[in-house]
Amino acid sequence: MSADAIAPRGTRPRVRSRAGTLLATLLATALLMTGLAPAAHAATGSISGTITLPAGTEPAGGTVYLDRFDAATGRWTAEDYSASVSMPGSFTIPDVETGIDFRIYFSTYEDSLLPGYYAGPGKALVGDVMDAVSVRAGATGVDLRFETGVPLRGTIDIFDEFSDSRVEIMMQEFPKEGGGHLGRFYSVYHYVRSGDTWESPYVRPGAQYWLSVRTVGFQDIFRQGYYNALTDGLVGNKEWGTPVTSSDSPHLVVKRGNVAARLGAVQAPEVRGNPQVGSRLTASPGSWSLYGVRTSYQWLRDGAPIPGATASSYTAQPADLGSRLAVLVTGKRSGFMPATATSATTKPVAKGAAPRASKAPAVTGAARLGSTLNASTGTWSASGTAFTYQWLRDGKTITGATSSRYKATTADVGKRVSVHVTARIAGREDGIASSSATKVAKGKPKVTVKAKKKVKAGKRAKLVVRVKAAGLARPTGKVIVKYGKKSIKAKLVAKRKGKVVVRLPKLAKGKYKVTVTYKPNAKSKNFVTKSTSKALTLRVR
Predict the structure, then answer these.
(1) Fewer Cβ atoms within 10 Å of its own Cβ: the N or the C terminal residue of the chain?
(2) Is 216 helix (H, G, I), strand (E, B) or coil?
(3) Residue 538: CB partners within 8 Å, gap ≥ 6?
(4) Is there a domain that residue 47 lies in?
(5) Do residue 76 and residue 107 come from a single domain?
């Protein structure tokens, strides 16, 4: 059924009037005539601004009030400042004490417009004083912007003896903790029977309200009470009522007397977030049947409590992998037994996201045959990471090369070598990052020559030549021994493992500079380069 009429109730009283101002003036005059001077007044100023209505709204009247912060109570309370205004238009509040913060409240008898507090330039009025902004005497250009409300609809059941009589359904806006006064009442009058619907056309979007029901007229057919979502009837105390918003559809049950209030969850808690190891899950407390319920949390793994997990958020651990999580919320309110509510379970906890390398691994060391290459791990997005390695040759796995160090072999010469680093954290996917590839060069053999440095004339000098090539155990080719301006060649065969003995011809007396050069043959030149020994001085006497 639609409303028969809508009327505001509980509007804030105007506590300052012209009569009051006149009385103050007469008292001051009397004091002067008796020779007593009145006390000095604080300096005053004014606050002024404009009133803006939504497009298509009919002009109406209203009252602007000021609230002052009361340090004794910790609340914003009504002050002795007000001004009646026409809307739209401008307003001025005179005689405002300077140097003090005030908050502006504006109400109107046009029910389609939502009253409230000034929240700052370009913002609509807000319902709670804690969301308001402060102003002081001297402020100008204060723009009070109204917005229109939205409907709240519900149903009603009423005892059989009550028929075709009117009831008043009242709504009062909740304050925030530490807020000032409650929002004003909205009243909706209905002729109702059991099963009827009702509607309050104008409430603040998202705001919470208490609902109460009473009879209209002088006869108390039933006891006035408040809506509690868990009771089969009305409760007798406002603070035992269940908060409702415009998105709810409350069902009112009216009996001759009130019933006992119940504490419980109206809407179950929810777990929000992605259930995977390392991800943070958060719990909404759900909604409860009473105002001011204190909630506490216990996270569950497959229905069992998780030790220490008692905050409103929880980071999934490796131990949760494959399990389903939920949260148990306990609600407490003075005078009531605690109540609990449990959320739905999550999907099985999946592995967490793989760690990422912010800096890629790198290969260091001389990239040539027989040299040892070293792999760095790089820099990763998570701590507590274990690493494994896999070396690659031209992008293909090198069997058995799984250490952080790798010695280049003949198979690598001319190829490009790189390393994959795998980062592992318990309960998470593996992270993999690769180094850039490095081309492996041929080895450079070390050629040494040993001989007696003094030889008698007519004797042949004996030279022991060694060719050592890291990564190539049996170099082959030839060695060229140069002594003075002459030279002699010798063959280096595989079975000698890089060693060859060379005898020089008989030499005349004198000093000879001896060097040995190794030249690899077709079999070895793919792996090593030509190389020459240091010079040796040979004396023939």
Answers:
(1) C
(2) coil
(3) 451, 453, 455, 461, 483, 504, 507, 511, 512, 513, 514
(4) yes
(5) yes
What is the pLDDT at residue 187? 61
Tell me how far apart the alpha carbons of residues 225 and 182 are, in angstroms, rounded to a whole number. Answer: 18
Burial class (CB in 10 A: 0-12, 13-18, 19+), 473: exposed
Average pLDDT over residues 247-268: 93
User: Are 470 and 523 found together in one domain?
Assistant: yes
User: What is the distance between the alpha carbons of residues 464 and 502, in angstroms, rounded to a whole number?
Assistant: 6
Residue 388 domain boundaries: 357-439
Q: Are residues 47 and 78 in the same domain?
A: yes
Residue 107, Cβ neighbours under 10 Å: how many? 20
128 within some domain: yes
Q: What is the pLDDT of residue 185?
A: 54
Q: What is the total count of domains within the chain?
A: 4
411 and 368 within one domain: yes
Encoded amino acid at 311, one letter: A
| Residue 387 β-bridge partners | 423
Contacts of 496 (CB under 8 A, 6+ apart): none
CA–CA–CA angle 13, 76, 71 (5° rounding): 130
Q: 50-83, pLDDT tens digit by residue?
A: 988 888 877 777 888 898 888 787 778 877 677 7
Using the predicted structure, report yes or no on whether residue 268 has a pLDDT greater than 80: yes
Q: Give me the CATH number covering residue 397.
A: 2.60.40.2700
Q: Where residue 470 sits, what CATH number does that domain have? A: 2.60.40.10
Residue 197 falls within a domain, yes or no? no
Per residue in 205-243, pLDDT (tens digit) is 888 888 999 887 656 678 889 999 999 999 998 889 998
* CATH number (domain holding residue 86): 2.60.40
pLDDT in tens, 419-440: 999 999 999 999 999 999 999 9
Q: Is residue 164 part of a domain?
A: no
Amino acid 146 reads: F
Return the minimum-mean-pLDDT range out of 10-14, 211-215, 228-232, 479-483.
10-14
DSSP state for residue 25 in the 8-state scheme = H
